[in-house]
Amino acid sequence: MDRVNLLDLDAAALTAYVSSLDEKRFRARQLQRWIHRRGARDFDAMSDLAKSLRTKLAEHAEIVALPVMRDATSSDGTRKWLLDVGLANAIETVFIPEDDRGTLCVSTQAGCAMACLFCSTGRQGFNRNLKTSEIIGQLWWAEHALRSSAGVTASEGSEGERVISNVVLMGMGEPLQNLDAVVPALRLMLDDNAYGLSRRRVTVSTSGLVRQMDKLAQLCPVALAVSLHAPNDELRDRLVPLNRKHPLRDLMAACQRYLKHAPRDFITFEYVMIDGVNDQDGHARELIALVHDVPCKFNLIPFNPFPDAGLRRSAPERIRRFAQILQDAGIVTTTRKTRGDDIDAACGQLAGEVQDRTRRAERKQQLPPLVAVHS
Ligand code: SAH
Ligand code: SF4
User: Fold this and answer.
1) Which of 91, 93, 222, 227 has the most ligand 1 atoms within 8 A of CB, as the residue to mutate?
2) Closest ligand to 124 CA?
3) What is the pLDDT of residue 344?
4) Contacts of 211 (CB under 8 A, 6+ apart)
5) Minimal-distance CA residue to ligand 2 atom 8
6) Measured from the CA of 207, which atom of ligand 2 is nearest?
7) Ligand 2: which atom is nearest the Cα of residue 120?
8) Contact in structure between 277 and 230 (CB atoms under 8 Å)
9) Cα within 13 Å of Cα(73), Cβ side
């Protein structure tokens, strides 16, 4: 019989599992702390667990995260791990250190079926959803690897200082297309016996799956970022093909519904700045009208190039002007600093290795280019 990977289990599932081994339910809490707060993987080391439980666990369970294929650190301190998800597929996890926080950018799928035009992951097509253990395993691995690099160790009576203070589901994949695995992973991120992050410090980013936004609001409302990228349906249809199914009107309504449950009183709209495509003054003015009744902030992301993208980043002056127009209309607007681009770890550059099962990459080549890239 296959072993149970304990990284697949949130608190409720772990409690049920411990009960199924004829052990007291409160043991699950201790076990969970060993796994997530101390990064333990060896049952024998879990000194305050009854010997009977340790023996059963050693026989039937395991704690296994994805194997690391590559570990690269950028000149700005950003660190990226390439993780093997089997059958010649790999995903990426990125840690971004800042003065006042440490953010981990987590992947939720091998590839992505959404096919956004400006995204390296989207160009590669989709292979499969990640499991809960593979999603939370990225945090489990990164937190404890970073602690050992920083020389922070858990000692008797202490579980060590936390290095990762924020998690964003902005790596490879569309998190809301994999809610069944994502929700237990989110619950562990929030759980005081695991990572204890507040709902405001965990952000799910979506390209706009309207029904699943409602589901997330019910199941586990964390901070929400919505990838907007265009102020009208005509342009968004081309940049984010999902828009053909869920146009902007429906998306704005879904944002308003989400806000009733959200831990923050605004939605973050992400907007990738692509030269000559969506970055003109008129686009900014259209955006202001579009979001007039949705409390929001804007995060402008300078487009990050990747091979054969056929698109270019807007000039810094253009981005400043665009931000100013939004700001003058009273919308808080920030521009994301590009981090880790020397190791291809910047937004939208995550490529991992994906064996496309949708043959999207092939079909894509036959589409006409969006704009002629002027030299
Ligand atoms: N699938 C989700 C989350 C992963 S993408 C989503 O689309 O929201 C995380 C963010 O990076 C999104 O806002 C996405 O639009 C942006 N992004 C994708 N490709 C990019 C690129 N080449 N340059 C800059 N940002 C990019
Ligand atoms: Fe998928 Fe997000 Fe990339 Fe679009 S931007 S293809 S939704 S990962």
Assistant:
1) 227
2) 2
3) 74
4) none
5) 173
6) 7
7) 3
8) no
9) 8
The pLDDT, as a whole number, for residue 151 is 75
**pLDDT for the residue 357:** 75
Q: Which residues of the chain have pLDDT under 50?
A: 156-157, 364-375
Residue 87: predicted pLDDT: 86
User: Measuring CA to CA, which residue among 333, 231, 248 is closest to residue 282?
Assistant: 231
pLDDT digits (tens, 9 = 90+) for 284-317: 999 999 999 999 999 999 999 988 999 999 999 9
Q: Using the mean position of ligand 2's atoms as its centre, give its distance from the Cα of residue 173 in Å.
A: 6
Nearest CA to ligand 1 atom 24: 303
> Ligand 1 pocket check: which of 119, 135, 210 to mutate, most ligand atoms within 8 Å of Cβ?
119
Question: Which residues in 231-270 are b (16+ Cβ under 10 Å) and which e?
Answer: bbeebbbbbbbbbeebbbeebbebbeebbebbebebbbbb
CB half-sphere exposure, 182, CA atoms < 13 A? 30
Pocket of ligand 2 (CB under 6 A): 112, 114-116, 119, 121-122, 173-174, 207, 227
Residues recognised as catalytic: 92, 347
Token duo for residue 288: 């202001």
**CA atoms of 192 and 44, how far apart (whole Å):** 24
| Helix or strand run (H / E) with residue 204 | strand 202-206
Query: Closest ligand 2 atom to the C-alpha of 109?
Result: 8
Ligand 1, CB within 6 Å, residue ranges: 118-119, 170, 174, 205-207, 227, 270, 272, 301, 303-304, 347-348
C-alpha distances in Å from residue 194, one per residue of 11, 103, 104, 184, 356 = 9, 17, 16, 12, 34
**End-to-end CA distance of the chain, in Å?**
60
